[in-house]
Design a protein that fits this description.
The protein has 314 residues and is mainly alpha-helical. The chain is built from eleven helices and eight strands. 47% of the residues lie in helices and 7% in strands.
């Protein structure tokens, strides 16, 4: 009895192995996905682990595939059994057979000669060897291998471009180490105390008087990280730069990046008002910023060309 991994026994007595032991169980080829020409050559979307698709030998041999059972329970599918593309495979395998009178006759001869046989014994018969040999000599082709190669090359290129983009982004990223913040610890504490006092001052502006303690702390953290980045890198520092740095430093306050970025942008706007309050003495004042290297901070934010002010909710 031939093994399950043997397709047929060649005329010289050698066992010819089946093409694809592990079928693609995740992707499915439907009949509408496949195009076949007059010579039986097929084209379909690239799909891996399905080199056996539409092979009359493989499909016919797979008719005997059954799931192994143990104590009445079926095991996982093997070979053709359970292949989601099996319907389309059979459709085009049959088309190939019927398009060649010689192969069709050889399959009929095999079916007649093995009617009394059961199971894999039918595939050991010489008539199946003759049928399979004729199919191999017919040498139908599929563009799946070429399509797969192109798809894999395109995917590899996309991944390479993504890696390059991430590398470029990482090189441009304005980050700071935790040790870089130490130089600003004292000034941060001074500013925190000044802001707490200003919030509690009678007659303070509404936007200042209604600041929650958590927002006060976040504003001071943002100032410290923003200032450290400016001193290290220079140039314009965006809310995204500060957000990513705060996440890397573990100062994200447990918030997701998108939510944190909104609060950081609000804090940067607030810092501008604390340092350059147009209606009176600033709460904080400047901290020796080099305006030639670092652009001045604005009390407004530009969003798609529109200046908007950020107000705290009561």
């Amino acid at each position: 009895m031939i093994a399950s991994n043997v397709a047929y026994i060649a005329l010289d007595g050698k066992h010819v192995l089946r093409v694809q032991r592990y079928r693609n169980r995740r992707d499915k080829l439907k009949i509408a996905d496949v195009v076949i020409d007059a010579d039986g050559n097929i084209s379909h979307p690239p799909i891996k682990n399905l080199d056996c698709f539409a092979s009359p030998i493989e499909f016919t041999r797979g008719l005997s595939d059954k799931r192994d059972t143990y104590k009445g329970k079926e095991g996982p599918p093997r070979w053709c059994d359970g292949c989601p593309s099996r319907v389309a495979c059979g459709k085009f395998a049959e088309h190939r057979v019927e398009s060649d009178a010689e192969i069709l006759a050889k399959r009929a001869a095999w079916e007649d000669a093995t009617q009394a046989l059961a199971g894999v014994a039918r595939y050991e018969h010489r008539t199946f060897t003759e049928f399979a040999t004729a199919c191999n000599e017919r040498a139908w082709v599929s563009d799946n291998a070429d399509a797969l190669s192109s798809a894999r090359a395109a995917e590899a290129k996309r991944k390479r471009q993504d890696r390059d983009a991430k590398t470029r982004k990482a090189k441009r990223a304005k980050t700071v180490a935790a040790s870089s913040l130490t130089a600003f610890d004292d000034e941060r504490e001074r500013r925190h105390a000044a802001l707490v006092k200003a919030v509690a001052t009678p007659g303070a502006p509404t936007w200042l008087r209604n600041l929650p303690s958590g927002t006060v702390t976040l504003t001071c953290d943002v100032w410290q990280v923003l200032t450290a980045i400016e001193h290290r890198h220079g140039g314009e520092v965006t809310g995204g730069d500060v957000t990513r740095a705060m996440i890397a430093l573990g100062r994200d306050q447990g918030k997701p990046e998108t939510s944190l970025r909104v609060r950081v942008n609000e804090a940067i706007t607030r810092i501008g008002k604390l340092e350059i309050e147009p209606d009176g003495a600033p709460v904080w004042g400047d901290f020796g910023r080099d305006v030639d290297t670092n652009p001045p901070r604005s009390i407004g934010r530009f969003l798609n060309g529109v200046i908007s002010e950020v107000f705290e909710e009561a």
